[in-house]
Amino acid sequence: MPLAERPPYQKFDVRVARSRIDGFGCFAAEPIPPRLKIGEIRGEAISVAEARRRAEGQQRIMIVEVSHKTAIDASKSTDPMRFTNHSCQPNARLVIRDGRIEFYAIQSIAVGDEVTVNYGETHHEGKLECRCGAPGCVGRL
To answer: Would you say 10 and 103 are in contact if contact means Cβ atoms under 8 Å apart?
Structure first.
């Protein structure tokens, strides 16, 4: 997406495409240097209790808890970063800052590389198989 058409919080061009990890993923459409912000996810602000209710029994969710009281449900968002998949050896990190869900490159990300983050603790409670394929994969989310 040309710079003029991107929302101001989406700093680098990314594309959504089929992922070898799971479903769809977020892929760099231009080189992304290390330590820079890639973009954000926006969505519906809901309570953590509501987030956990919505996540119950779901394999794929797009909900991030941003505080002990608030979560963001990005399931209806048009932000491409919402398709960022988990990897045990990610090339980006997710940062919660002032209630915003931001993504930063850990290393250089080449055009065509899938942008990945380590989800950390998830609602799956270690019951979902990890399919990242990274060396040293922990095997579960």
So the answer is: no
pTM, two decimals, is 0.89
Pick out the chain residues at pLDDT < 50.
none
| Class of 3-117 in CATH | mainly beta
DSSP per-residue string spanning 13-52: -EEEEE-SSSSEEEEESS-B-TTSEEEEE--EEEEHHHHH
Number of neighbouring beta carbons within 10 Å of residue 4: 5
Beta carbons within 8 Å of 136's beta carbon, 6+ residues apart:
88, 89
In Å, what is the CA distance from 138 to each residue of 87, 91, 132? 10, 16, 9
* Greatest Cα pair distance in the chain: 42
Tokens 């979902």, located at residue: 128
Q: What is the pLDDT of residues 42-80, one digit of tens each?
A: 999 999 999 989 988 776 778 888 999 999 999 889 999
CB 71 within 8 A of CB 65: yes
Give the start-to-end residue ranges of the domains of the chain. Answer: 3-117
Three-state secondary-structure class, residue 124: coil
